Amino acid sequence: MDNRTVAIICHGGAGTITEKEDYARGLSEAIEEGYRLLRQGAPALEAVLRAVVMLEDNPVFNAGTGSSLTIDEVAEMDAGIMTQHGRFGGVICIRNVKNPVLVAEKVMTETDHLILAGDGAIRFARSMGFEDYNPVTEKAKRRLMELRQNGSKFFPRLNQRLGITEQKSGTVGAVAIDRNGNIVAATSSGGIAGRMTGRVGDSGIPGAGVFASPAGGVSCTGHGEEILRMLLARDIGERRKTLPAQTAVTLALSEAKRKKVLCGAIAIDARGGIGYGYTSPDMAYGYKAADRLFLFTDSRK
Ligand code: ASP
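^ Asparaginase, sequence as received from the core. Prediction below:
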């Protein structure tokens, strides 16, 4: 493994993307920075964390600052990170922190646990020095108001009660392989706008929204309830044991499409091969490998 095989792929969510140029710009900045670190010899863990933090800090995306709100107007965020050696850290329904993915990494490195949720996750974050931070933006509040006027195809029961449209994209994820062949995957999400408070999505759950094994890494996005049911990231991981990343993603997603699940995934295999795909109208994604950057706006499906 040498410099030529380092690679990073990121996504900015599956769904309907209206601000394509903003998504592409945010993704390219994060990918270029992650790739620069990898080329300098940084571990995949560092490159993935840096890329995801940049995406979380960019209010265009639905993660960290700018996260989608629950029906009670609360930003509850999920994030997970996993290495190819099976190390995992996750946070679920965490509030009032700037970078959920960094707290997830601390769960992995500083605790005996895999996942911390809710108040316990917040208390742990504070003990690790993460300051109180309000990730709620005016835009996220407006989006919730718009949803209330329309209706979500994902949550018909909530619709009935509240009259809540269309799922916006914006969850973020990154997968990288470093020059030693180490692979790390991470996902961070503000969840689906208009969900119930306390709802757990796929992003912080190993095997669902994020997965890594010696065969490679995966980050998923889309309808969390269905991704959890399918254990989509694990499904792609299992297929990748014998198949290149792209074939594994394509096969898993054709199954998802058959089941009418709206989702998307990015992956890297142990040889540095890239894979991506989606069943939703759009997915924001991009990758850099062999010193070439590719963005979803470079070609249409
Ligand atoms: N998978 C995320 C969730 O269900 C949302 C998304 O990826 O858009 O929480």
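The domain at 7-295 is CATH 3.60.20.30 (Glutamine Phosphoribosylpyrophosphate, subunit 1, domain 1).
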